[in-house]
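Sorry to interrupt, but I need a hand with the structure work. Please put the record directly below this note.
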Amino acid sequence: MNLVEITEPSMVQDSLKMFKLLQEKGSMTMETVLMRKDGTKIPIFLNAVGLPNQRYMAFCTDIAERKWAEKAAQENELHYRSLFDNTLEGVAVHKIILDSNGVPCDYQFLEINPAFEKMTGLVRKDTLGKTVCEVIPNIEQTLIECYGKVALTGVPDHFEDYVEALDTVFEIFVYRNAPMQFTTNFNDVTERRRAEVNLGESEERLRDFIDETPAGYFFVDNEGRFKSVNSAWLRMHGYESDEEIIGQNFSITQPDDGIEYAEKVVKEVLNGEEIQSGEAARKCKDGSIRFHVYSAHPVWMKGEIIGLEGFLVDNTEHRRAEGELKKERVQLNTLLHTIPDLVWLKDNNGVYLSCNPSFERFWVLRSRTS
């Protein structure tokens, strides 16, 4: 049996060419595939030397495991290349450059992905192999120092950087991938940061509105403790600073005979109910009792009620005015019922609408005598 007979069919022609070369050169090496008796294939490394009388001697090494490892490495390379090219994050691989004193002074672009090109405007073919100082002459030295620290120490870093030329905020993760090298992962967080700024400004406007409104604002957590009140609330209760009230239980502002009612209202709101309008009494810092109308609703966060908030409007003077008016009506009614003078009320048609007892007695007596 010769070597050709046990060579994998697709490799026969290559093997014949190599043996011809062996005859010409006197030695040769090659990789080929042999066939076992059972038909399984064996990749081998063949090292052959020529001998007298057209003979040769060959040494075969089984390289099946090496081939398997190479195939696996190739598949991994394809896999990671696909991830590298298709990830939404901008990814770049760099080599740090040191000056004569061993201090990071520049870095070279080794690889960048399409997302990095899109985010930064740098073109791969014009960037690879160049240094950042060549590509971006006005690069901040502090950024080079930061990347250099990661490349030299192996300690990863995470920060945000605003690039004025692009008017873009990048969230950057940087780590060492090999000695004297580092990889950066870029995320464009510009819109998120702008949204946070807008949200912060909206919250500040809301806080200003709440603090300037004449209605008393309060926020009570689900443990019944004051977490926030505005200036109007402090004035209504006679406090000078919110430090006197924050962290206190809401019962501190309730009259003794109103605590049970207040606890019932707080429980209802913390269970998800809203109160559009209610009326209650409050106890001020000096112990005096005043009155107000109020509204309250639950505060939700991530699907859970974390407390309640609402507004108070003082109606103490209104209640006092109503009380005085009621008192005057009682006094007037008493007067009308006790004076001997005749008092009556008619409409425009002369029909009696009401009268006092003296008038009633007069007309009863008159009708009897007539």
